[in-house]
């Protein structure tokens, strides 16, 4: 899939654990883990907004498009 999820990179930069982020964005560990591993098929804008707010970052810091022609 050409969309790469860099959530783990941002979490490492901000030194925040999956448990802590889960509490801050009110998302289950399971759902957050699915997103972190890139297995998610979709993300709600409200969830993306909460993650960006918790990590003090922009959506482009978390999601990356790779054009693999």
TrEMBL record:
InterPro entries: Cro/C1-type_HTH (IPR001387), Lambda_DNA-bd_dom_sf (IPR010982). Residues 7-62 form the HTH cro/C1-type domain. One of its GO terms (molecular function) is DNA binding. PROSITE patterns: HTH_CROC1 (PS50943). This is Transcriptional regulator.
């Amino acid at each position: 899939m050409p969309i790469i999820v860099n959530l783990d990179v941002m979490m490492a930069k901000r030194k925040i654990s999956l448990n802590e982020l889960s509490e801050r964005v009110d998302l289950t560990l399971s759902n957050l883990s699915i997103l972190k591993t890139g297995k998610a098929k979709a993300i709600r804008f409200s969830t993306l907004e909460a993650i960006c707010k918790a990590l003090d970052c922009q959506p482009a810091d978390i999601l990356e498009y790779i054009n693999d022609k």
